[in-house]
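We now fix the convention by which a protein and its fold are recorded. Here is one such record, which you should read through line by line:

>
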Amino acid sequence: MNANVEHRPWVEKYRPRFLADIVNQRGIIKRLEQFVKDSSMPHLIFAGPAGTGKTTAALAMVRELYGKKMAPNSTYLELNASDARGIDVIRTYIKDFAKTRPPEEIPFKILILDEADNMTAPAQQALRRTMEKYTKNCRMILICNYSNKIIPPIQSRCVVFRFSSLNNDDIKERLKFLSNREGIIVSPDGLNALVEVSRGDCRRAINYMQSCGTISDKIDQEIVFRVAGEVPPERIKQILKTSLEGQLQLSLKLLNDLIKNYGLSGTNIIKNIHREIYELEISEDIKIELAKLLAEFEYRLSQGATEEIQLQALLASIVLLKD
């Protein structure tokens, strides 16, 4: 095990402390920096996919606004709405924080409500009134994946910032920075694999790299795919091509080897196949039929069907699609 790896998650250990250090999202960061410069801000909603810097941006903004005066439960409060999402929490804990006057040296307190789209509708209605009544004392930052799950009255009281998924180059640069700090060597194919399995989620990419770092100081594609519970695309493509060529026995052998080596569930295998079918050089009609088959067999597995039988039946059905 790498001696440099700490039990503390790298996501927290290397979280950017200031807005300028956040990966990508330059348009949003520029507007937030103006709020800091003016020492004023409205209620905000940060919406977008996971791992794109929403919570980090909120905390960095608080840090730049308050500096050394930043104090949890005094100048700012961070809550996770997936845990504290009932109306009682809004009427007591959040209301008590919002209505108390801020310390004299700061203009207003900030309440960060993470995963706000998990709040119940009655809780959101109660929060709306709290936001309206105590705006002078407290500004709120609501963080969510889906802004449409926030009721319209709250949206109308907030400025909405929509974070986009990070591009591959930005994630690679962040991973290179962390690997240098931790003394880990990441091969080019390992770096590409980390980006592929993260799918625009920088937090997921960092967590996977930390998990790989506990196995070896040298991270390559094979280690990444094993840790992530995914299969190299070429292995999946080989099974698909063999099946489409009508070679059932060989495709079954390749599938069994895959399951034995990677320990994947039937659902994971179907998801891996689904990602690759549109990259194959086959007719559009065959791609359509493959998509239908995957949907059908994924549903069968979700209903408790036997994985081995269903996966073999899937390959048999693909063989029958042979031109």
Remarks:
- The beta strands are 43-47, 76-80, 109-114, 138-144, 158-162, 185-186, 218-219.
- The longest strand covers residues 138-144.
- The chain has 15 helices and seven strands.
